[in-house]
Amino acid sequence: MQKVYIRLEHISKSFGSTQVLKDICGKLYKGEILGFLGPSGAGKTTTIKILTGQLKATSGDAYVLDIHSNNIDETIYEQIGIVTDNSGVYERMSVYDNLRYFSRILNVPKERIDYLLNRVGLYEHKNKLASQLSKGQKQRLVLARSILHNPKVLFLDEPTSGLDPSTALEIHKLLLELKESGMSIFLTTHNMEEATKLCDHVALLNDGKIVEYGTPKDLCIKYNTDKKYKVTLVNDEEYVLTSSINDIKTLINLINEGKIETIHSCEPTLEHVFIKVTGRELN
Ligand SMILES: Nc1ncnc2c1ncn2[C@@H]1O[C@H](COP(=O)(O)OP(=O)(O)OP(=O)(O)O)[C@@H](O)[C@H]1O
């Protein structure tokens, strides 16, 4: 049976009289990426903070590697990595020394530092002071630090926000490799394309509640209610047809006339699913 690395059981969280998480349940299995998706303020970071022992839930139980979040102590940090924001970088140390410092604490061979610096595209900046890095570069340094010790579970809060597309692509490649190697990744993002590409399962969060859960593909199929088909003709013209009687007649005519090159069904994207489920845009 697949190992469960994270369990959220009926988690609720209030700050004063404001309830920000409402009965959140979910599981993350070994070697999977679970995406927590939702607009700003939906409760994504709060969920990570509860799981990693930085905040206490008002009710419910959360477990990481079978340890209840109320019982987490520093030994858990040998098994998990966390990327929340750019904090935790020693600004007056070089990029290399930042990682060397943590590699000593975590007993990681220093050869891994160069490997990771290459992987996150910071090798050529290794002698720069961390304070001289751009926001995106600092974000990559935090990512490298978080996987230095090859943790079993990695928490990533918006890991590619503010990164240019090619760096984001490199990070995606790295995350998929980490997953392949058996790491479990709990990812929060606003970016539905990123989630579709990376996540085995996604939970759509709105106003502190999980409003949908499933694989990105299954959710897109589930919400493909007004089915559409993209038809490309031999003369390169393109049409989007629906299942209406008129469109079906048009389709039959096009087939009879031998004018069709390809037909594809147009499933909605996760973004469309989110809008359908919540009635609101993501941002
Ligand atoms: N310490 C706190 N005290 C009071 N309210 C808080 C606290 N931390 C978070 N909140 C509130 O809880 C809600 C959820 O915040 P959270 O940071 O979890 O959202 P998020 O989904 O991660 O948003 P973003 O995508 O902008 O990071 C927000 O309304 C926020 O203002």
UniProtKB/TrEMBL annotation:
CDD domains: ABC_DR_subfamily_A. Coiled coil: none annotated. Keywords: ATP-binding, Nucleotide-binding, Transport. It comes from the Bacteria. The keyword ATP-binding applies. Residues 6-232 form the ABC transporter domain. Gene3D superfamilies: P-loop containing nucleotide triphosphate hydrolases. InterPro entries: AAA+_ATPase, ABC_transporter-like_ATP-bd, ABC_transporter-like_CS, ABC_transporter_ATP-binding, P-loop_NTPase. GO terms for molecular function: ATP binding; ATP hydrolysis activity. This is ABC transporter ATP-binding protein.
